TrEMBL record:
Key words, A-Z: DNA-binding, Transcription, Transcription regulation
Organism expressing this protein natively: Rhodopseudomonas palustris (strain ATCC BAA-98 / CGA009)
GO molecular function, one term: DNA binding
Annotated coiled-coil segments of the chain: none
An annotated GO cellular component: cytosol
Origin superkingdom: Bacteria
InterPro entries, sorted: cNMP-bd_dom, cNMP-bd_dom_sf, Env_Response_Regulators, HTH_CRP, RmlC-like_jellyroll, WH-like_DNA-bd_sf, WH_DNA-bd_sf
Pfam families the record matches: cNMP_binding (PF00027), HTH_Crp_2 (PF13545)
Protein name, per record: Crp/Fnr family transcriptional regulator
Domain (HTH crp-type) ranges: 148-221
Keyword DNA-binding: yes
DNA-binding among keywords: yes
Amino acid sequence: MEKGVLRAAATRSALFSQLPPAETSRLLDASSLRQFPAGQALFHQGDVPEYLFQILSGLVRVTQLNSEGEQITLRIMRPGDLCCVAAFRQRSYPATATAIKATSVLAWRTNSFVALTQQSPALADNVVCIAGDRTREMLQRATEMTGKCIAQRIAASLLRLSAQAGVRTPAGIHIESPVTRIDLASMAGLTYFTVSRTLSAWQKQGLVKSGRHRLTILDISRISEIAEPRIGAG
């Protein structure tokens, strides 16, 4: 994809929302286009945050090493996402970001990006909104871990994955193949076997179609009902 096409796609993201043309140009001019092959890290947890990245194409898995030494999948980032906004003005990246397919990004040096936000209240507002959305997502996940049953947690995480890495097809919403059941289990805070057992049961009910390298949500409305049961339903 040509650089001009990628840059045009970037301006349709939340980071560029409502920016005047002159500020859009300054933001684009301050960036550089970078490519990451599948398997390469954009940055590692604990590194000094030298860059912020706007994903233009591809997919990125964001993981965090927990106190038990396990890599926990926090989210899958898709084109349009700003990665890693949590490192904005922080001393280190709080997570590791790895391309799970060939990925193109716009990159800004952190100090240059901070200077741009100081010059543009609209850009600063966009960053605050993006950070707020991510915070709400993490709070929602924390609530799910403590207040929902296993099926609800899996359904909620499946919906989240469908929004982050799903492709709508005639059969349903297909979760792109670099995303694995291990990601789903990690996001739900459950074991791989628990998730596999639940998906097998849902497949028999016609809710999903699950294979070794593919996962398709066939009945998104029913999965949504499992994630958020209606009061009095059942």
